[in-house]
Design goal:
Elements lengths: L8 E5 L4 H16 L8 E6 L5 H15 L6 H8 L2 E5 L5 H13 L7 E5 L6 H10 L10 E5 L7 H12 L7 E4 L6 H11 L13 E9 L8 H7 L1 H18 L8 H14 L8 H4 E7 L1 E3 L2 E3 L17 E7 L9 E7 L6 E8 L19 E7 L3 E9 L7 E9 L10 H11 L5 E2 L1 H20 L5 E4 L28
Parallel strand pairs: 1-2, 1-4, 2-3, 4-5, 5-6, 7-12, 8-18
Antiparallel strand pairs: 6-17, 7-13, 8-11, 9-10, 11-12, 13-14, 14-15, 15-16
Helix pairs in contact: 1-2, 1-12, 6-13, 9-10, 9-13, 10-13
Bound molecules: 6-O-phosphono-beta-D-glucopyranose (BG6).
Length: 496
Amino acid sequence: MSSSIDSCTFVIFGSTGNLSRIKLMPALYQLDAAGQLPDNCRILATGRRPWDRERWLSEVREMLQEGVKSGVDTEVLKRFESRLDYFLGEIGDADMYVRLADFLARQPDVSSNIAFYLSIRPAEFGVVTESLSRAGLLKEDNGWRRVVIEKPFGYDLESAQALQIRLARFLDEHQIYRIDHYLGKETVRNVLVFRFANVMLEPLWNRNYIDHVQITHSEHFGVGSRAPYYDGAGALRDMIQSHLLQLLTLVAMEPPVSMEAEALRDEKVKVLKSVRPIPANAVHSHAFRAQYGAGRVGGKTVKGYLEEDGVPHDSVTETYAALKVYVDNWRWRGVPFYLRTGKRMAEGVSSIMIRFRQPPTQFFRDTQIQQMERNWVVLGIQPCECLRIQLTAKVPGLEMQTREVSLDAGFRDQSDVYADAYEGLLLDIMEGDRSLFLRYDEVEYAWRIVDPILRVWSTERDFITSYPAGSWGPEESRRLFDRDIDYWRHSLKIAT
Ligand code: BG6
């Protein structure tokens, strides 16, 4: 089996790191298994460890054992290994890029379409790009050159702007692939199809019918071995600025003129631009932060954040963040969007929950029906990939009583192929499809939304609310809701 995609070469920086181990190498292997890698696709790992090709291959075998859930096939592995090579060099050493250019030019079967994948510390994005450029590796004279940049793109608005200025000196925007793996998730891609391939919901998809929207990403995991990065970032940067605001754009955007990258991204940016700025004196009514303490998760006792390895004992970094924003445009004015994320929560779930308004008249007031639940549209992103529409129906019998029923659609049949988010995105990089990658203005406007909150939080360093690991976060975060009757909806299922 071979792919119809142009030949290409991947050059991976940070190939021995966590991301490469857990996601990239398994995803590239899976693409090979699915016949999606072009015949002469080569994958060159750069690294500073004094390894040779054989040693790299044994490392990759280990990565695949862990990362390929369906098991590694001997034939595919043989083919995949024939694509791999290891190139020794230090990221900060200018000479290594000259050697790299020379190496690539001398390989007869290496394609000159090259994707440089920067799976490295954000502080190194600039220097690697500059060095690639100085070595002539970003010139598109006889093939495309693309640079894939992992998040975070900047640490705040100012640093994102500075990084962009630096990159723009060496790269054209069409060469930059700012990756947000969240956008590669099956249900996230499905939000667009759900909204724009079905007419049924479109007339209801606005402020006249929708009461509010909740977007949640909760995790069982704690900070693990990532404290050095995480303690400097916190949940607002790590999940909300980078991923959840992107989900918000997909829920709120206007239909684009086409599904072509620029048309799609134009509409997403318009949403971000329409978000009402949060002034410093409104930060507390729009944002909430907290940190996990010790607790029990999955039946096991776990440490609190401050006891995790590498976390300073007086850290006030948030592991839980909740945010309320308003999209001030014709469609959404007055509808709150609530975004929340947390580590060490009761469940690991990602979902978009859309709550509809109450019917205008309470027809059933004089019956046994006291309080009618409102309708919800629930989109499960993970672990359950599903769509549920929750409606009210009469309970059979002589009395007028109601109960909630749900129209359920799983997005995945047993026979459907499971593809990790990275697989689809790597394919998009090879095909030159940037629709699910972030354009710079998207990143910038997302920073503009969270920057005022980060600034206020950075001055409040004496105290942070705590929640027990294994819980749904602090009750106090309910203060973000506009009305007392509103609540965080945790479960995709109907409450009975
Ligand atoms: C990453 C964050 O971008 O996304 C992590 O840095 C988070 O902190 C992860 O755990 C969540 O994504 P997923 O695909 O693992 O649910």
